[in-house]
Amino acid sequence: xxxxEEDVDAHALRRQGWTISAIARHLGRDRKTIRAYLxxxxxxxxxxxxxxxxxxxxxxxxxxxxxxxxLWASTLFDEVVGLGYEGAYSTFTRALRRYRVRxxxxxxxxxxxxxVAVIAHPPGEEIQFDWLELPDPPEGWxxxxxxxxxxxxxxxxxxxxxxxxxxxxxxxxxQALDDVVRKLGGTxxxxxxxxxxxxxxxSSGQVTAAFAAVAKYxxxxxxxxxxxxxxxxxxVEKANHSAAQRWxxxxxxxxxxxxxxxxxxxxxxxxxxxxxxIDGAVTTVGELAVAEPLLDIPVRPFPAELEVERTVSxxxxxxxxxxxxxxxxxxxxxxxxxxxxxxxxxxxxxxAGRAVVACHRRAPRGAGQTVRDDGHVIALERAVxxxxxxxxxxxxxxxxxxxxxxxxEAERLRExxxxxxxxxxVVIDLxxxxxxxxxxxxxxxxxxxxESPECVRHRxx
Length: 461
Known about the structure:
Elements: H1 4-15, H2 20-27, H3 31-38, H4 58-67, H5 73-82, H6 89-98, E1 126-135, E2 146-154, E3 160-165, H7 170-184, E4 190-193, H8 209-218, E5 221-224, H9 234-248, H10 257-270, E6 275-278, E7 281-284, H11 285-291, E8 305-311, E9 317-320, E10 323-326, E11 335-341, E12 346-350, E13 356-361, E14 370-371, H12 374-386, H13 404-414, H14 431-442, H15 453-460
């Protein structure tokens, strides 16, 4: 790069008749550089810009943000990194602003102007829990209109973990709570909830007797947020926002529940790398979480009983928690219930009348195993084989001439009309019409009436 002084000297010497080689030797520069500045291809004081690594990904980013203007930049950054982008996140967001990739949304720029208070959260003091209802789940999840994600966040460090469940009822809540605290590595001294009906009575905020037993089992206190005060558990609300935008929004169709759970686990681990500044020292969320004094949790979860409905497949299998369990043959298409008490190693499959039809040892969740009972396998094989016939197959290379009945039918067809029509010949008797014609010939014609003078004058006109 030439300085402005060198650029001025180069142009002055060029006007004086110096050659480019002489100017290059005088200034100690390359001839191609001097030629580029003299021809106006380069500007003094400005370095040549390196090729922008964002440009190849610009059409993709424009299309994604045109389809979804509220897509998070961090979510889009994760996608382009998977496509081969090697720049940093700050470079990526700077390029989004420079090229004005994101469409403008006026309602999103409105400011509420509310005052915000900072709530102190001592280490190991509180875990905030909240249900995140995710609309339009992929087909095959069997969860209805919404998928259900229980998110738990340590209020001090901000570390969060989440678990997908089929429902928000009490047994699934207990199972998800136990999974979340185990993923966090322990439990805080207090749990905070909003006014969900499975934890407290929404009208009064008093904890229900069933959930009080759960809190005693884990040795924690329970705090209920005041009504219409979502900011009181802002840590978990922010985690909900991250999970919805960075994980759920780009979830493709056809994704299995196990793969979706793996995706949210990877996101929560990645979020542990967020930077925090505590008393002037720079740290991360993961380092703060490791330093939190968490309480130990029981070896087994609280013994709540899960009860879910399933439909038996044609192979006499029932799906539950990412595995398949066998039932006796003859129940294909029948709705049964799977009963499992948390902490136990077995599960039961019962009919609508609560009759137990199968009992199996529970496989690890999401393992994709098929657990079959030997008696069910033998009975299913017998049922399938009994539907087959051991009679010899029909022979095809034989001589079978037309039978007598077939020959008689063929003869009847030959005696039909020559045109080959199957309709019978219609015979009409014309004797009656001939008699009527004879009578008409013998009847004299009617007498001719005389016309009046008025009719004659009218005809002449």
